């Protein structure tokens, strides 16, 4: 798989989540562009940024579906965890000197598209119903949820600013 082209069919209809998914796709494309660079230091930074952003997206998504009372929050979280383990393992091999950029890029791009299509789509109705229940104005609700979730995550993980990257 080469450059990821974002197509409207990949949007799940929750504005904030779609924005974060597009951003992950941008990171993956940056990794693709640099996959053959001889500059391992730069590559290491790009890999770390891609992984970090994806992890903060997962934390945000998990907190959101849990708050909305999604029935499969637990299994969804476990799918994320499995993916994190695989990515961390590849990242460790990179640090040990292996050439992993192509493998990591392939894995990330396949995984992202499949996960959005198959698993993320599953929570949309529950989250939207929850947002409607909280407020008739969906935009305002989304904004409020966003702020509350980030505050909660920062307190839980004691990582000030780490989650702010989701919105920068
Ligand atoms: Fe997910
Ligand atoms: Fe997601």
Your description of this structure?
The protein has about 170 residues and is an all-alpha fold. It has six helices and no strands. It has helices spanning about 15-35, 40-65, 75-95, 100-120, 125-135, 140-155. Helix 1 runs antiparallel to helix 2. The model has no long low-confidence stretch (mean pLDDT about 90). Bound molecules: fe (ii) ion (2 copies). One fe (ii) ion binds near residues 21, 57 and 61.
**Counting H and I runs of at least 4 residues, what is the number of helices?**
6
Overall radius of gyration: 16 Å
**Mean pLDDT over the full residue set:** 89
**CATH top level assignment:** Mainly Alpha
Distance between the termini: 28 Å
CATH topology: Four Helix Bundle (Hemerythrin (Met), subunit A)
Largest β sheet strand count, sense and barrel closure? none
Tally of separate domains = 1
Hetero groups bound? fe (ii) ion
CATH architecture: Up-down Bundle
Strand content: under 5%
Give the total of beta strands: 0
Oligomer: single chain
Q: Choose one word for the global shape.
A: globular
Element order: H for helix, E for strand: HHHHHH
In the predicted model, the low-confidence regions spanning at least 5 consecutive residues are none
Helix-strand makeup class: mainly alpha
Helix content: over 70%
What is the CATH superfamily label? Answer: Hemerythrin-like
